[in-house]
Amino acid sequence: MHSLLSRRHFLNQMSSGLSGIALASLLNREGLLAADSSEAKSPIRPKIDPGRPFGARDTHFAPQAKNIVVVFCSGACSQLDTFDYKPELIKRHGQPLPGGDKLITFQGEQGNLTQSPWQFKPRGQCGKYVSDLVPHLGELVDDMCFIHSLTSKTNTHAPGENFMSTGNTLDGFPSLGAWVTYALGSASQNLPAYIAIPDPRGKPQNSVNNWGSGFLPAAFQGTDFNAASPIRNLARPESLSASGDQATQAFLKRLNERHLERFPGDSELAARISSYELAARMQASVPALTDLSSEPAHILKLYGADDAQNPVKAGYARNCILARRLVESGVRFVQLFNGAYQTGGEGVSNWDGHKSIATQYAVHGPILDQPTAGLIKDLKQRGLLKDTLVVWCTEFGRMPTFQKGASGRDHNPSGFTVWMAGVGVKAPFSYGATDEFGYKAVEKVASVYEFHATILQLLGLDHERLTFYYNGLERKLTDVHGHVLSDVLA
Questions:
Q1: How do beta strands 128-131 and 441-443 pair?
Q2: Which of 24, 350, 360, 372 has an alpha carbon within 20 to 30 A of 47's alpha carbon?
Q3: Does pTM surpass 0.70?
Q4: What would the DSSP string read from start to end of 189-205?
Q5: DSSP per-residue codes, 64-109
Q6: Do 162 and 204 share a structural domain?
Q7: Whole domain around residue 17: which residue ranges?
């Protein structure tokens, strides 16, 4: 008989195998057994109390940032007219793009290479070149971490907004803010954890998809309002006195508690009661938060909220002040939009500068520049940047050429710029690069997946392990892609 089949050999192997299993069990119980790679990357789904869906939850590891403000420029802000300085583009102005014969992009055939209408100058102590279109932001380059090599999967606005906000070009996926709120809950008892602030001119092209909850529970979607448009249906009816309102709320609370006692396992009921109670607390907290009359004149001036000559800029500035007040009040995730869906024609309401970029961006630059710079300066002077990450982004970049027959730039997902400021990132710092014309990312090429993974990392979340089980899959913000851009971390 072969030795492998002998009874003696079988019993010997079995006894040693059982001993190994017992030893492994003892070592694991004492925490002395290293986890294998599959266990180390096992999914982490936060434990959520249905009665307290917004309760604060633990991070995966020690976070650097407690709050985040995302400034989203809708319409695809040109990197070549703001933050990506290309001397060769100036030198080769008016010449054909090498290798770009009859190049067709989103709207059609391209013309020649065209330098920016705005001059670039060295700024700050580091001497980073930034255009005259955004001089106030240029003053802050020593506090900024630039990523010049980001790429997108699409050259169309709505899918591009989706991709930047949700990590997917399709509708129906949770936004970055929803993922963060799902993972971490809220640090505030009286306000939502996630607030989206639309531009004074309206909502972005892909509207509520930018702050939607997708397949995550609806509790984790963003609540949208701005300084000019308060939360809808929040005010107490004039026919109801304050004391009567409070008495009604107290009576309703007792009824809800009794009902919940009768159905102790009803998680949907518990969640609904929690949402109503938060809405009641917001009736008291939100009006005071959105009333900016208490802001001193020097703060209004810092942001440009006192600019009577430019009411859109003043409106956006007031939104920036609101963003700061939300961070001060413990709101974990604030998404601030600059630019809205096109109203009045192409390039009028956002950064989509196809026809005449010099004319169109001359409108949008001042609206963005001073208020956003004021927000960063104000956060810094109040000590809030020690816990807050500020992110500036757009859905994709623009071409180094002008469109044939026009004086504007077409869509370009092959290389564009985003930046971060505040806690956890190196500053001043520049990561990656586009080619000599600013057309394609060529050095340390990064995708939106890497961008999202890095943001989650700064918030103490592992992008590979934060999941939600949906339709038979462990869904993640970064899907199966991406890695943390560790080079940008302080």
A1: unpaired
A2: 24
A3: yes
A4: SSS-SEEEE-BTTB--T
A5: S-SEEEEEEETTT--GGGTT---HHHHHTTTSPPTT-TT-B-SSSB
A6: yes
A7: 3-34
